[in-house]
Amino acid sequence: MTLNDYPLIAAMLIAAGLTALDAADASDTSGSATATLPTEAADAKIVGVTVYADRARVTRSATVQVPAGASAVEIGGLTTNLDERTVEVRGHASGQVTIRGVDLRQEFLAEDANRRAAELQRQLDGLLEQKSALESQIALLNARKSFFENLSAGISRSDKGPPQVDDLKKIYDFYSDELTTVSNSLLDTHAKLHAQQLEIDRLKQEMSGLTQQKSSRKVVISVQAEKPDMLELTLFYTVHNASWEPIYDARLNTTDGSVLLSYNAYVSQKTGEEWDGVKLSVSTARPAENGQLPELKPVYLSLNSPMPTEAFAEKDQLRAATKQAAPMPVPEQAANPGPAKLETNGLAITYVVAQPLSVPSDGQPHLTNLTQIKLNGELSYVCAPKLELAAFVKAHLTNSSDDTLLPGNVNLFRDGDLIGSLHLPQIVSGQEFDLFGGRDDAIRVDRKELVNRTAETGFFNSRRQRARKFQITIQNYRKSPVKLVLYDQLPVSQDNQVTVSQGQISPKPTETDFSEAD
Predict the structure, then answer these.
(1) Is residue 62 part of a domain?
(2) Residue whose C-alpha is closest to residue 220's, from 35, 377, 402
(3) 410-439 pLDDT per residue, tens
(4) Listed residue (45, 200, 30) closest to 128, CA to CA
(5) Among 1, 180, 410, 510, which residue has the fewest nearby CB atoms (within 10 Å)?
(6) Are residues 78 and 219 in the same domain?
């Protein structure tokens, strides 16, 4: 493998030290061999991260001067959370340089490997020293205050008799000035101590959310160069404790029925590495799932065997999945204005955030905007007075973008006002769907019961009849007519001795569904 005008890949090299050459060269990459080689330390910064649903792929980059002959390059400070099976090294040089092997090792450190945690610990140590100094200062001031208080009591009990008026005035003025100075110093010092304690508590709380690491991993790369050369190295590996989930802001314009959909991502990670100003991408790929088709297993029947229940269980699961989840209250979030670049390979979609992004290793969600989608729709109103005396705004939309809208919560805005939230199912490109825009108080709905009576008929074969009649009134207080769909229901008999007769309905329903009950 020679690095000329194309990258060289040493893929899937694990801690055992698999080489990029043949098995005959395996001894060159052992720990004892690399320890005797001239070694260059490379500062490989994190330049890119691709986040998946349950993990992330990290990209580091470094440029190092390698001497002629055999040498080693060390990239240290890596998190212990990385998956060693996913380590991959690529290189590029102008001359002939060969990567002979990659070795992954663990280092034990005197201080925390998490740079943010180490910095916070240094700040905390300094604040604790300042707190100790303030407490000593308070103790000295209290002792000085007690001295003057005892001095005042001693003057009144002096064996020389009561002091003269002029002497008493001088003593009082001195005592008063000193005690005032001491009291003011005590108040000021207590205020400083309180502020210090608040900052100490804040640092401790922030540190509690960080991953504490007393060890790290390093990659040792064995190389062979014909002459001194500049070697550009790119290191890839996968880490766990990272994820992202979609969240949307939907802004409905009731004038034309359009919706401006902000497609956002909540990114969180607690990998032990700080992602500072990196090129961030989020992907819909699912590396955790097995890509192989599951195997169908035979189902055996006999006269004494119960019927298989898999089909009924799948039907129940399908029904449960198709029922829309109840809306969850989600506060409005501010999103970054820069849209993300969409990349797709036909199987998964990757959004590349336009601006470099920083995501600390604190496990907290950090919001970034992926893209904004303008959807044109048809606006209408729907109501079901039996359930609620209100009319709801509904926009019938088509996902006209190339994006697949993943399931997630939607913060719903109507004409600029936040009116609530709902859950959006997965919507593929070109799919039609309905987005409800909340209640409209300008449409008044009322449902009144006019008749509710029960009567007995027949003498020998008596039958009971029950009659019910309702009146639904809808008033439109908007300035223009609106399209409204009203839903109501009639009971359905499941007993041949029970008959349901439909009375007169005015106006007549445009659509009737007598499907079986679930």
Answers:
(1) yes
(2) 35
(3) 999 999 999 889 999 999 889 999 999 899
(4) 200
(5) 510
(6) yes
